[in-house]
Amino acid sequence: MSAFGMAEDEVRRPMNSVVDLEIIQQVAQKDLIALFQKCQGDKAIVWDRALANPMNLIATPKVLKEHGVVRMIQLDPGMALPHDIPETVLFICRPLVQLMPVVATCVRNEEKHRRRRKFHLIFIPRTSKLCEKYLEEQGVLPSLESIDDLPIFLFPLDKDVLTLELDSVFKEFHAEMDPTGMHHIARALVSLQKRFGTPSKVFGKGAAASYVFSLMQNLKQESGSFKPQISGVGMDYMILIDRQIDPLSPLVTQLTYEGLIDEFYGISNNQVKLPEEKFGETKTIFLSSGEELYAELRDKNFSAIGGILRSKTSKIQEKLRQKERGNMSVTEMKQLVQHLPAIQTLKQSLSTHTSIAELIKAKTETDEFLSSLECEQELLSGMGTEKINSHIENLCGKKAPLNTVLRLLLIQSITSGGLKANILQHYQRLIMQNYGFQHVLTLQRLYAMGLLRLQGGSRYTTLRRALNLTVCDVSEINPTDFAYVHSIYAPLSIRLIQHRLKPSLWANLKDSLLSLLPGPTVDEDTEIPVGLISGKRSTKFTVVVFIGGCTFAEISALRFLAQQDDEREFLVVTSKIINGNTFLKSLQEDILSVQS
Amino acid sequence: MSFLTEFDRPLTTDWISIGEGDETSEFYRKIELYDMEWTSQVDIENYAVVGASYGGPVAIIKDDKKFLRVTAQIPVKPIISIFTAAGRLISSLKWDSGILVRMGWSSSEDLLCVQEDGNILVYNLFGASKETVQCLIGSESKEKAFEAEIFPSNNGTGVAYLTTKGNFVVVNNYRNARATKFAQVPFSEIKITSWTVVAANRLTNIVAARETSVYRVDATQAEQVFPEFVSVAGMNSAISFMAASLNGVHIALLTESGILWMGSSDFSKKYCEHTLGLRTKPKQMVWCGSKAVVISWDTTLVLVNLAGESISFSMDSQFALIPEIDCVRVVGNTTHEIIQKVPRETNSVFGIGSVEPGSVLFLASNEYAKGSHKADEYIRTISNMNKAVEECISAAGHEFYPPTQKLLLKAAQFGKCFLTKYNPEGFVHMCQMLRILNAVKDYKIAIPLTYTQLEKLTIPVLIDRLVLRRQYSLAIKIAEFLKLRESQGRSRILAHWACYKVGQTHIEEGKLADEIYEKLKSDTNISYSEIANKAFESGRKKLALKLARFEVRRSIQVPLLLQLGDKDTALHNAVESGDANLIYDVLLSLRDSMPLGQFQMLIRKYPMAQKLYIKYCKIFKPESVRDIYDQEDDFESQAALFIKESYSSQSESKFAARLSSLVSAQEMYKKSKNEFMASVCEEQVKLLKYQQTLQQQYGKDFIDLSLRDTIKELLSMKELKLAEKLRSEFKVSEKMFWSIRLQTLGEHHEWPEVEKLSKTKKVPGGFEEFVEVCLQYGNRAEAHKYLPRVKEDLQVKYYVMARYFEEAADIAYERKNENELLFIRSSCIMSDRSLAEKIEGMVTQLRTAPPDRGNRNARK
């Protein structure tokens, strides 16, 4: 249904009309309920905090209640279980060793008080030997009635986005060589292919991409009966992007509406907590394309938001005024009454988003924001990347948030193609002198992972030219290029996809491009038996997998590509939605939490 | 109808009618299945013969006394031979155990040999011993099995014993060997003259006779059903034979005087009583299906139906009877035959004088084949074509002779044409089943099943039996023919084949592995690990290893490789799987099973495994992590570890330890030639030492502040000298030091001091910072002092920042910079509308005035 007042707007194609992700949610919910049914009667769930939101996408509290869940408790360090809970207690957590002490303490505490409890432990998506070993060493293993896997790998965020909710696969794989996350991703993709068909082509770049691809091959071989199939939907392409080939894009400030909300307030599984200044109280707002206005706004550059909100508001007011004046024909009146519920919804939406936009506007107008943005854009354009940047120095001097400093520093390090040793050392010293020695290991890690790097083999300049990464004259209101998501910068990851999908562009660039980007390349055609190819497939359905996370701006850019190409639709699968801050957080070496 | 008699029916020539020969009469037929291959070797007269039902194999043992009791007096160890139904020898085994009381077949075609002590020795078709089931039948060792019977029970195959003390003990399933002692039969002074097992509806009863009294016995009671068996003829003699039908519904009793009584097994119904002509003791009495009893003497065979009518057959040689659910098999020296009641449908089609639709259709079809117009005539008389077709199909199923089957199927096919809505499933199914039945009946396979038996047995079981006979190829063909799922059909059969192959110790291991792989490689469902396990069990470790390597499912293969001791491959494949859980499994198992040094050498080959092991150690054995790094000469990691350690305890008492950790870190960095990091550590040590002194001196927390915050703290305390000392000691840049001073002063609102600072000759940070600090701590007026000294191109920006819009506008206007003016306007529009309008005026003025080179604002 097209809401009233949107009729004259551009006709946007619905996102991803090809595959129905609801089925993923349904299957996951069914698995969850099946586990619940294993334990009779009322039960309490103790949630791993990080799973509470994603699981909300799988089963609503109402559904849980229907299946005997009478209490929901957050799993937090130092917690003790309340005593007025049912006998059956289900711990549901990610397979992370750091969560196990909390579980162990809870269990032991209950036993100390001789409360009759039946404990079950459920790992999403899969058990971990380390966790089991830990529980074994702590002697709580016998107290657990069962340990189960709940193989929910993918959480549907929207019609075209699936997330695995893996916080730190980038670090785990590239710094620690821990394949757990890759294994999960490979499994998720294989299950996705089982459901939606085998892609006819696979393209991937980066060590993690090729590793995931090889694991997928293994898994398919192991499952034996897996045969290429095209079931209803045909996947045209599966593109695997290792974050390592483009660590720059998440560091750059997102300037889309959704991106900015995320940068400032952090969107977690479609939910954002907004401060009281505009809403009277801290308010949690649910953001998804189910809300028509948000669907229209989310991918736009923030500069365009004010205009849209204003024009929509005035249109509504105009209509309502007409009604009050009463100079409407009967048919007009009838039409209006029909649209009234839609108008009310839209009005509510408009008021919410106007408030959000005002919050963001205020933030974007501060000097801190603008000066750092300016510095960022200069670096992206290749200006002054080789010398010590005074803005970064100043930020350090003012002890601005460390993340802001690190983001700019990494941007400089990447865009310069590596810093001179003395400059790098100067920066490192600056950070340690101002922020403290405890950041030394984080800096070391960033260095080891090649994010902070020494001069040698500047690639950015060449890539910038080859892929047209910075575009100066793109319109923020009516963009013709997805560089608008960062105002002047087009994310490298998406540029690569754009080029790969266009044979004419690809032919010229292929060799130079692939050698400029790190890591091995996967570029394969799947042999699909002729009989299986269904006659006509008008839409080219492309699954883009970000290993190591992607930003909202990157998703917006992909949606922009889909809007440009009538035949192409994208499904994004990401290990996690990230932004510069969460990306850096996942890389931090948290030296102080080691204290015992 | 006259035309029916015109047709010659050769197919009924071997039918024998029983009874009066009127409408109600039944027909029986004897069909030859095989010419026995054993003709020259076996004379049944000298053997005890037991056959397995469902067309199963036949086991024989030499027995002079004609009953299955091998007594200790016989010095020679007897030979048990196992033959196919066609008399081909499968295997023989030498019986060298205790006294054999009974021999028989289980439902899964294992040969069960029941010993006097109650134990059951189990052999497979190939004479290989599978197991010995211990079975306790008596409370004392003196109580032995006197007789035993093997019977099909509801959950497998059971064994019933009559002990030397006259007790009945029943084992319902020999596999679990749970023996139940049955109630005692009264009047133990009279010998039990005959008994049998009745197993029906999950209940197992024994019917036993003491002379003329008959009892029905179970675990709780012995119920007398005939206090004294008296026949109608008034003759009264001991019951010497008993037989229950296979389905346990009927029972037949035979007295010494040759009177046969037939009734229901619960004795609630009596069907008939029949006086046999012969009074000699018969050799065997079994049921033929559930419609008749067959009694055999040396070369004579008498069949009595439920109505008490009988027919007798005379045979060429001695023979043995094998009961089946729908017939009886007669195994003789030269032939193997079955005696069967002519099935209803067969009778409908072929019966003399039959006017059933099936019969007419059959005629019509034959006429049609001859091209005779009579076909049409016949077809027209069929009122129920559906029934006609069904009858022909069913009748085909009951035929053994393929040409007859064909004729009947053709008739059905012909009849089908006249039906508009006919579901062909039944027809297709019958064609398939007949193909299978004919294939397994072939004398090389020799499983002579009737259609009824196959339906009861089911295809999967038939496939199992073929596998059991090592007829893998036929089994696969059947599975493929019926399009069974690979996991149930082909793959499973191939796996069995491979397991069998693995046991062939005469073939060289490498060759065998290749042969197996060659056959199995196209099949993705095969579990090599199962086969490898088999090889391992039969002690062929090398072969097992070879096979295990073919397994694609790493999660199954890796544990197997570990078990087989191929540690390297196990680790390699675990790493390849990318499954951290699997890698940990291998790592922990290896660590516990080999010397540490070797273990470390091994995992070093696999960086991923090594890293994961380190991760494991960090959690469970932190003290060992450094050893690993040490071994690997990984100085950087060791340094990082030391740095972490320096933070692990922050209590003051361990301060010295913290310092020494950092010193160690510094040394490590030196070793790894990372001069920069070494110097950073050194500086941190120095800083901490300073901080400790300061902390003691001022009683304030200094330790773990950053250098900047330390200086700031000192400046706050007005310890400028000390701050300066730190500055020079740590080579803090002039600019940074200034900035800290400014910040500190602002924070404490010491504006005069700020001004003093501004008057210094050199201001390394520029005046922008002054403005910022003033604004940050809320002194707009103070900020105004420094605005004019801000760098020219930043002035407008800073004026606006300090909200001196008017002055900003003047400066911009003076510079004729339209962009700046617009920027100021947009900044002040919310707060000062009149000023905004004034600026708009300025802009218009600028636009009308000849353009001068404006100073563009740096920002967009």
From TrEMBL, chain A:
<dbReference type="GO" id="GO:0016192">
    <property type="term" value="P:vesicle-mediated transport"/>
</dbReference>
<dbReference type="InterPro" id="IPR027482">
    <property type="entry name" value="Sec1-like_dom2"/>
</dbReference>
<dbReference type="InterPro" id="IPR043154">
    <property type="entry name" value="Sec-1-like_dom1"/>
</dbReference>
<protein>
    <submittedName>
        <fullName>Vacuolar protein sorting-associated protein 33A</fullName>
    </submittedName>
</protein>
<dbReference type="InterPro" id="IPR001619">
    <property type="entry name" value="Sec1-like"/>
</dbReference>
<comment type="similarity">
    <text>Belongs to the STXBP/unc-18/SEC1 family.</text>
</comment>
<dbReference type="InterPro" id="IPR036045">
    <property type="entry name" value="Sec1-like_sf"/>
</dbReference>
<dbReference type="InterPro" id="IPR043155">
    <property type="entry name" value="VPS33_dom3b"/>
</dbReference>
<dbReference type="Pfam" id="PF00995">
    <property type="entry name" value="Sec1"/>
</dbReference>
From TrEMBL, chain B:
<keyword id="KW-0967">Endosome</keyword>
<keyword id="KW-0653">Protein transport</keyword>
<feature type="domain" description="Vps16 C-terminal">
    <location>
        <begin position="526"/>
        <end position="844"/>
    </location>
</feature>
<dbReference type="InterPro" id="IPR036322">
    <property type="entry name" value="WD40_repeat_dom_sf"/>
</dbReference>
<dbReference type="GO" id="GO:0016197">
    <property type="term" value="P:endosomal transport"/>
</dbReference>
<feature type="domain" description="Vps16 N-terminal">
    <location>
        <begin position="25"/>
        <end position="429"/>
    </location>
</feature>
<dbReference type="InterPro" id="IPR016534">
    <property type="entry name" value="VPS16"/>
</dbReference>
<dbReference type="GO" id="GO:0006886">
    <property type="term" value="P:intracellular protein transport"/>
</dbReference>
<dbReference type="GO" id="GO:0033263">
    <property type="term" value="C:CORVET complex"/>
</dbReference>
<dbReference type="Pfam" id="PF04840">
    <property type="entry name" value="Vps16_C"/>
</dbReference>
<keyword id="KW-0458">Lysosome</keyword>
<dbReference type="InterPro" id="IPR006926">
    <property type="entry name" value="Vps16_N"/>
</dbReference>
<dbReference type="InterPro" id="IPR038132">
    <property type="entry name" value="Vps16_C_sf"/>
</dbReference>
<keyword id="KW-0472">Membrane</keyword>
<dbReference type="GO" id="GO:0031902">
    <property type="term" value="C:late endosome membrane"/>
</dbReference>
<comment type="similarity">
    <text>Belongs to the VPS16 family.</text>
</comment>
<dbReference type="GO" id="GO:0005765">
    <property type="term" value="C:lysosomal membrane"/>
</dbReference>
<dbReference type="GO" id="GO:0042144">
    <property type="term" value="P:vacuole fusion, non-autophagic"/>
</dbReference>
<dbReference type="GO" id="GO:0030897">
    <property type="term" value="C:HOPS complex"/>
</dbReference>
<comment type="function">
    <text>Plays a role in vesicle-mediated protein trafficking to lysosomal compartments including the endocytic membrane transport and autophagic pathways. Believed to act as a core component of the putative HOPS and CORVET endosomal tethering complexes.</text>
</comment>
<dbReference type="Pfam" id="PF04841">
    <property type="entry name" value="Vps16_N"/>
</dbReference>
<dbReference type="GO" id="GO:0003779">
    <property type="term" value="F:actin binding"/>
</dbReference>
